Amino acid sequence: MSRLRDKIALITGGTSGIGLAAAQRFAAEGAFVYIFARRQEELGKTIASIGRNVTGVQGDVRKLEDLDQLYARIASDGRKLDVVVANVGAVNSVKLADVSLESFNQNFDTNARGVLFTVQKALPLLNNGASIILTSTIASLRGFPGRSAYAASKTALRSYARTWTMELKDRGIRVNTITPGPCDTPLIDAETKSPEEAAAVRAKHAANIPLGRMARPEEIAAAMLFLASDDSSFVAGSELLVDGGMCSV
Amino acid sequence: MQKLQGKVALVTGGSSGMGLATAKRFVEEGAFVYISGRRQLELDKAVSLIGRSVAGVQGDVSKLADLDRLYARIAGEKGKIDILFAGAGIVDPQPLAETTEESFDKVFAINTRGLAFTVKKALPLLNDGGAIIVITSIAENKGIPGFTAYSATKAAVRSFVRTWTAELKDRRIRVNAISPGPIDTPIFEQQAPTKEGADQVRAQFAAAVPFGRLGRPEEIASAALFLASDEASFVAGVDLPVDGGMSAL
């Protein structure tokens, strides 16, 4: 259980769902983990639950000064970064006819612009051979009504992985996207009005997935661990689909 | 903690290169591994190198009788297979204008038909919840002069992965492909008449990789381990590039 021993990792959006599972797994594998998230209370709970080898920095990827403060903190801790997981994402459901500048920007400011500056400002702190992981979505591979701007903003990440692979190759820095399929989290219960409704939502997702069920967050985290660790030392510029076969059939 | 404790694996093309590295890694992770290959001498050397928890079975994947003999042996000794790594493959570069029937048929017989029947005949022995890993190639998505047949055989194998993901879903068998970029294996010896010639081909391919080097067989093995293990429990139907960024070019 030490595949990230002595490594320093940063996870943005690491207080819930997949990001939280990744933070837990990375810490269990020996990494020291910085979690960057907007809500201080959630950050506090997350740090407490993981317990050790983790610390939180509050901030918003849409604010360049928050990113500057994040990296200044890591630098002043005397650390460099081996793994960056740009996991923060802004999702909404807005059909094309209803898209407003505000809803459009909500997706692009975080998912496209925020991720770029998250990675840009990490560059001086990245060790050679570091691994950058960008969390995408199956919405970028399929047509889901209501996801015009969300899907497009996340599709940018697949393109970033290619461009940055070519820009950063001389430093041996690997940039990959991870594309989770539908993931079973408490959010489903929070967004439905009854256990029966929640079960129906889960069943509807499962019907489209060859493996017959939704992902557990730990399964996405395990795939992120693969990309973060030396086990993927020759994997660069790629997209790792973790979707139970959904987008391949 | 060993990731493949108690598992039985079959690695075709296991006497050299990626197959050998994978068999070795699987054994290190606790599996018993059958390796198959066409040349008894190479097989014996490989078994000797791996040293424990391994058995070599001579055979040609393009011969159905050899596959029957292979699976009869595994059925008699172990009674099951948990992991199938279909690594047997050849290359025979010929410009289209000079392509012979013999060469075309030979490459398809091993890389495509042989692989399909390797998997078909494994099905009765494969455990539900098992993993199938096949080897495609970056060539399937590129235009490489001389690779008419080879690239097509690999594109076909990528298609198999989709079909089999759908067909085998009720048995929860995960089928995935690894798409290697140029990896430092004896396959280069098949592409030139002398050692110097082969090394020249190696250097040409290395120069085309963003990371500026060939991949090591161990880097394919670690990707295979990921896909074979519970770490990839929600990964199905994918074609994972392990190519030092080459597909990002």
The radius of gyration of chain A is 17 Å
Q: Helical stretch count of chain A?
A: 8
**Biggest sheet record of chain B:** 7 strands, parallel
* Average pLDDT metric of chain B: 97
Low-pLDDT stretches of chain B: none
Morphology call of chain A:
globular
Q: Any low-confidence stretches of chain A, pLDDT <50, length ≥5? A: none
Structural class of chain A: alpha/beta
Tell me the number of strands of chain B: 7
What is the total number of structural domains of chain B?
A: 2
Could you write a compact summary of the structure shown?
Chain A is of the alpha/beta class. Chain A has eight helices and seven strands; from the N terminus they run E-H-E-H-E-H-E-H-E-H-E-H-H-H-E.
Task: Record the SSE blueprint.
The complex is a heterodimer of chains A (249) and B (249).
Chain A: E1 8-12, H1 17-28, E2 32-37, H2 40-50, E3 54-58, H3 64-76, E4 81-86, H4 101-122, E5 126-135, H5 148-168, E6 174-180, H6 186-191, H7 195-207, H8 217-228, E7 239-242
Parallel strand pairs in A: 1-2, 1-4, 2-3, 4-5, 5-6, 6-7
Helix pairs in contact in A: 1-8, 3-4, 4-5
Chain B: E1 8-12, H1 17-28, E2 32-37, H2 40-50, E3 54-58, H3 64-77, E4 81-86, H4 101-122, E5 126-135, H5 148-167, E6 174-180, H6 195-207, H7 217-228, E7 239-242
Parallel strand pairs in B: 1-2, 1-4, 2-3, 4-5, 5-6, 6-7
Helix pairs in contact in B: 1-7, 3-4, 4-5
